[in-house]
Amino acid sequence: MNAIADNAYTRTLTSLGKSLLVERPKAILVISAHWMTRGTFVTHMRKPRTIHDFGGFPRELFEVQYPAPGSPETADLVRSLVREPEVGIDDQEWGLDHGTWSVLKHLIPNADIPVLQMSISLFDPPEYHLKIGEQLRDLRSKGVLIIGSGNLVHNLRKIDWDENAQPYDWALEFDQWIADRLEARDIKSIVRDSLTSPAGKLSSPTPDHFLPLYYILGAADAKDELKTEFEQMQNASISMRSLSFGRS
């Protein structure tokens, strides 16, 4: 619902988008929690479709379109940079799912920057995803913005439909634990320990929404400044913490 909401989170995205356009990205690569595959793929079509991969929400949400162009050339560049594993191409099956357009609708509202998605190989360990992120790092020097779209805390079974519900203690604990590890640049602990603690298991009962973080950590440089762009817990069990590396 954040895709069509006017709240503190979406206003932060709008403001962030205006600052990003000072140095306009040539393309945007999004690793979205909503494209899960066996193996890793990148969208390769010129005109990716807007995917409404959900049900039971208002018609207004299904009517949202995000007609950004694709970039086969950038997809080919991704494939040349990521040597292991081999990245497959998707010319027609996927497109832009709501993990991508619900963010970009506020960040780049004109949909006038090429966008492509990279899938998440769901059954591979954290090191697999971190290694891909490291190989994507060179995209940044070529003007490509890399976005990981997920949630550090994402437990739909425990959700409270009151957006401002009191967060669970375990959700706050895990969200802060990750924030502290990020501040310390303790990537090893995040990779090794995140989803093994009781709070971590409750916060991410399935890994899909957590895995995009590894790509961003891999693509970040040790000299990058870490910024917390937004911090809030929605619906008791969804962390909207948003962070950036390298933005001056």
Account of the 3D structure:
This protein has 248 residues and is α/β, with parallel strands linked by helices. The chain has one domain: LigB-like (Protocatechuate 4,5-dioxygenase, Chain B, 3-Layer(aba) Sandwich), CATH 3.40.830. 35% of the residues lie in helices and 19% in strands. It is built from 10 helices and 11 strands. The chain has helices at residues 8-20, 59-62, 72-81, 98-107, 126-136, 138-141, 169-183, 187-193, 198-203, 212-219; strands spanning 27-37, 41-43, 49-50, 88-90, 95-96, 115-121, 144-149, 226-230, 233-234, 238-239, 242-245. The strands form 5 sheets. The chain has a 3-stranded parallel β-sheet with strand order 6-1-7, sandwiched between helices. The longest helix is centred in the last third of the chain and has 15 residues, at 169-183. The radius of gyration is 17 Å and the shape is globular. It starts with 7 loop residues before the first helix and ends with a strand.
List the helices and strands and how they pair.
Layout: H1 8-20, E1 27-37, E2 41-43, E3 49-50, H2 59-62, H3 72-81, E4 88-90, E5 95-96, H4 98-107, E6 115-121, H5 126-136, H6 138-141, E7 144-149, H7 169-183, H8 187-193, H9 198-203, H10 212-219, E8 226-230, E9 233-234, E10 238-239, E11 242-245
Parallel strand pairs: 1-6, 1-7, 2-4, 3-5
Antiparallel strand pairs: 8-11, 9-10
Helix pairs in contact: 1-4, 5-10
Outline of the structure:
This protein has 248 residues and is of the alpha/beta class.
